[in-house]
Each structure stands twice: as C-alpha cells, then as structure tokens.
Amino acid sequence: MTSRLPRNWSPQVARAQGGVFTARQAILEGMTAAQVRRRRDTGIWRRVAGSALALDGTELDAWARVHAAWLTWPDGVACLTTAATAHRLPVPADPVLHVVVPDHRRPRLNLQGHRVPLASADVVRIGQAQVTTHRRTIVDCLGWLPEAAADGLVAWSLTRGHLTHADLEASVEAQRGRRGNPRRRRVVEETRNGALGPAERRLHELLRGAHLSGWCANERVVDGAGIIGRADVLFPAERLVIEVDGFEFHGREKFQADRDRQNRLVGAGYTVLRFTWSDLTRRPDAVVRQVVAALTRLRAEVGRRG
Taking every annotated instance into account, which residue ranges of this chain make up the domain DUF559 (predicted)? Predict the structure, then answer.
C-alpha cells in the first residue's frame, strides 16, 4: 500500500489537527502497522510529542501543539505556555507541551503532566483539545514563568484589559499554598500603585521622593482617532506624559510602535518626556530636574491661558 501513496501522505484527519496525527489514525485510514513503522523508522514521519506524529519538516503552530497534547492525553487540559501560545499571549518559546492531567503520568517526549485543580469554568475547547481559559492561563503563567517574562506578561495583560488588579488579588487567594503563589503575590504588591515593571517602579520612587503630586500611573490616553495607549505616568492637568523604556531590547517593531505612539501624543497636545533605565538609575537627579522644569513651564502656560 505504501508504494501507492505519495511520500507526503498523512491521514485526512490530520488536516483538522494542524498536521499532527497518531499511528492509530493512520491505520484507521488504511495503512498497516508495518507501513506506519516503516515511515517512522525512515524519518518520513517523526514523533513530535507523546503519541503525536507529523510529516518531517512540518512546522507546528499553536493549533497543532494543543492537538498533539490532546492526541496523547485526551482527558488532559493544555496549560501554561502551551495554552498561552494558543491564546496568543506574549510568552517565551517552550518546546515542551504542558497538560493538566487527573492522575500521575510519566513525562513523554516533549510532554509534561501537571496535577492542579481546575474548575470547569477554567477550561475552554479549541478544536478537539481542552485548554485553560485566557484568564486562567495568564494567572498560571505568572506563577510559573521566569521573573522577567512574568513581568512582561502582567504588563501586557493589565494595559490591554485582559486582567485587572482585582483579578490578580483574587488569584492569590484562590491559589493559597500552591506553587508559584509567592511570585503572584509579589506581582500583586508591585503593581498595586500602577507600576508595571522595574523601570516604572523606579520612576514612581523618584516622583514621590521629589514630593511631586497630581500624577497617575498606567493611565489611558485618547485622541480623536481613539485610544492611543496607556501612559506610564500622566500629569493630566498639565498634559504631561512620562514614558520609560526599561532595560530590555524590544526590537524594530516595538521601536516603530513607540515612535508612532509618541507622534500621536504630541499631535493630541501632550508634552512627552522619555527616560531610559540608565537615566532612572544613573542620573536620577537629572530626571527629576527635567520633570520639574516641564511641569513649571506647562503650569505657567495653563495660568496664562486661564
């Protein structure tokens, strides 16, 4: 039978599963066990995770990954970074598929089981696979990712309204005594006053230390075209926006997005100050002087207009 099939043949069912399938599915569509074994042994098919196979060279997207997990453990629920990529959350690449399972199971190739309680409300279906919900996935990842990645995820989630500070506090209460909760508690405390990362927290310290008032953090700013974004710090009366760039490299797309955002802010009548991590840590006095100078000038302009 194999001689009558093209080299790139795979079961029809694989199309709905992102290109992944099992040996059993191939046999159900007409192959013999020996023919399946030959394709695996010669590398035409490769095992990608657990029991899941794919044509050699197949690029696995998020849909394929959650289905690879489902094909191996159909009673499991994809979680952590596996669910995060399915929900298009900004998390680091992870070759391992993570699955909540109801009982202890030994790890399989690129597949790791986790024993954690899940309510039915915490689970959604993506295709055939069960996956933790968008919000539950964020909460779980905050307690499991490396610190820098967790900081990035919480900032992304809070600024886009995918999560509120109240959600974070509720998650800490719900996860008492479980792995990752100390880190979630740290995130709650660090974001309580609106700071979404180390650079924002440092800026807040400088503003408070200089006894500057009238500002708010992580505040939404709009223009005639709609929402521009959230300002790291906004002095609304003076229409002064302060942005911090942090200490990580964001790449060309982020650089361009920041410049587009700044142009919209200026066009909407805001004054924009930008500071780097180096500014905040090595030249804090200069940062405060620039903020004070901008506020003095803007308040004088407001007084003349008033």
Answer: 198-295
Give the predicted TM-score (pTM) of the model.
0.73
E strand or H helix at 73, and its extent? none
The 3-class SS string of 238-268 reads: CCEEEEECCCCCCCHHHHHHHHHHHHHHHHC
Residue type, 233: V
Q: What is the rounded distance in angstroms from the CA atom of residue 58 to the CA atom of residue 46? A: 9
Beta strands in the chain (DSSP E): 45-49, 52-55, 77-78, 97-100, 111-114, 123-126, 129-132, 216-223, 226-235, 240-244, 271-275
Q: Indicate the domain borders of the chain.
A: 2-132, 136-191, 198-300
198-300: CATH architecture: 3-Layer(aba) Sandwich (3.40)
